[in-house]
Amino acid sequence: MNQEAIPTLTLSPTLEEVRDRFETWRSRKKAGSPIPKALWRAAVEQCRDHSLLEVSRALRLNYNDLKERVQGSKKVPSLSTGGCVEFVELGLEGVARASECVVEMETANGAKLRMHFLGQQRGIDPVALTRVFLRQGL
What we know:
By secondary structure, the chain is an alpha+beta fold.
């Protein structure tokens, strides 16, 4: 396989990195400018690893605005209504023993992805892998 065809993945940014992005945006923005969607997405993603309160304080965001966006991000459009499912969260918190998960995907053009996880994974972001895979299938 051609090494140039394999995309490089970036790890999810830390809360401190996202805070720095917000501070940079705030220092350059025009008065009254809305927060860019990319910054909101980064803030919502931080709520996977940190509490809403911790993220809202660190990023100087309104707690309720952030909470609405986090709750909105968990809604998965129905395939029957023509929605596109980008991410499905599996509630696996509290699983005491080692678990195994296999995820297989195929795009309309025939590209395939198979991910096999055994036990708790550290440093691997299956969502990022999926996003990169799906972008290539477009």
